[in-house]
Amino acid sequence: MRTSWADAVDNAASGSDGYGVGSGDSHRPAYVPPHLRNRPPTPDPMVGQAATSNNGPPPINDRLGYGGQTSGSRWAAPRSDYGRPGYSAGGGGRGGRGGGWGNRGGSWGGRELEANPFGNDDVDDPAEIASEQESSGINFDAYEDIPVETSGVNVPPPVNSFAEIDLGEALNLNIRRCKYVRPTPVQRYTIPISLAGRDLMACAQTGSGKTAAFCFPIISGIMRGQSVQRPHGFRTVFPLALILSPTRELSCQIHVEARKFAYQTGVKVVVVYGGAPINQQLRELERGVDILVATPGRLVDLLERAKVSLQMIRYLALDEADRMLDMGFEPQIRKIVEQTDMPPPGGRQTMLFSATFPREIQRLASDFLSNYIFLTVGRVGSSTDLIVQRVEFVQETDKRSHLMDLLHAQMDNGSGKQPLTLVFVETKKGADSLEYWLCGNGFPATTIHGDRTQPERELALRSFKSGKTPILVATDVAARGLDIPHVSHVVNFDLPNDIDDYVHRIGRTGRAGKTGLATAFFNENNMSLAKPLADLMQEANQEVPQWLTRYASRAAYGGGGKNRRSGGRFGGRDFRKESSFSRGGNAGGMDYYGGGGGYSGYGGGGYGGGAGAPSAWD
Ligand SMILES: Nc1ncnc2c1ncn2[C@@H]1O[C@H](COP(=O)(O)OP(=O)(O)OP(=O)(O)O)[C@@H](O)[C@H]1O
Q1: Alpha carbons 173 and 176: distance in angstroms, whole number
Q2: ipTM value of the model?
Q3: Which of 73, 208, 503 to mutate to test the pocket of ligand 1 (most atoms within 8 A of CB)?
């Protein structure tokens, strides 16, 4: 009997992500190039049921055993997948399209052979595909006046619509299936830059569509260049693109998204990450991979076993790039990028994305880039105006009762149902303890943190997304990238030490043009955050309490310089523009679009390393 987390997901027949790791079919030949993938898929054997983890007694959360809720989220797996044995990560792709640029998409007759990653079976029905009136609900007006700044030589101009870009017919169809009517600002600017083959460092607000911004050009580029011959290694695979992200959940999410974008393009996307059985991931890889989505630890493992070669990499994308290059991850990333057979900068195209990009990290990142363009969209390093930020002075001992007041109040405000609330705490123990206390007081809660097993983490996320346990207590492992629909409130029960972590945490709400609320509990333990927090709130037009302004001015005079942004404002400036930059290159001619005023770079001291407890990351 299999006991992987993916099996647990399989058991939850109506799970939301359609996620898991393929089973069986391990006798497939090694890599099958996209143009040869016309064989009908062999029916996969049904696999048995696997136990989910039933750890603890808290009576009203997922720890009792997963109830198989349907999330109703946009990530929902297609019904056609439910009967499958552990919906394989792109496994259906081997039945994918023939090779040529022109023969993908609508006209191909065997489309049903590839698992449909969209939530509807009838995706070719034009009525199902978004019209100008029916978009995904993104509020583009929120982005009308967004300041954008680019620097670098010969910056390609932005586009206003997907129609202006030649992404290829099959990808365009998938964009419509995703109900993306217009590109978001970061997509308007970055897609032409990437399609022009340029390296890129891009900062854009949380929830602004960065995933598609790096996926579209990669998929499009691979579709165009499929004739490339890859070496034949004994059980070694040679992906063409590598997307690295710091957490397992984020890698899975990127994989789910990328599979939608790559549906019926012939481009095969596979994910590998820690905490899940490596053999299943190896089997997926052996079925063929064009785009590899990975967490660094598991990838290093696969590289050391010579299961993956990066020799053919043409595209490298680092999501949450500043986190990937901070103190916890940098050695692993350098190992992957600089000490393997991956082509050097210039021999590959490199794209770095994040909502925050401290100067010190930019400096490190520039080692990976060649003649790159730096782009900032929005008030970089700040939050979006769509998030209402509140900060309340709460002593440690009062935090629980204060949280309970908030939870009661938000329930009374609406339909009596608890809205999805994400509560960030500092430690894993603290997360468990708060979860237990919440459950004991009648609030269905669950946790996600680095001490939980991967099946437990995945289960918790599902339970939260589905609303079964509408309160998720989390450490920073959930701070970055996760796109959970309908999170209406983020509570910083314990504030992070680093303002960038705060930015990412509150960015779990107010996504894709929607509004959200973020509440922070502040007390004397958070003094070093007073100034950057007050600055950030002011910049985002939020009401800054007078007591916080007072603490902030005290911190400005009396030190508190631990935080890397203290003394400065929002850090969206290309570090190459600074006079201290002397690495033999510069930003060259500067091209500006839009406003872009008001950035004054990071004034504070060195990079503080953030909260990144290594065990919380993958
Ligand atoms: N052009 C578009 N039209 C409509 N919705 C979009 C578009 N692009 C992306 N989205 C949606 O916006 C949401 C946020 O996108 P995404 O997760 O890529 O944000 P992000 O910028 O990577 O956020 P973070 O900084 O938190 O990682 C997703 O639900 C995505 O499907």
Answers
A1: 5
A2: 0.99
A3: 208
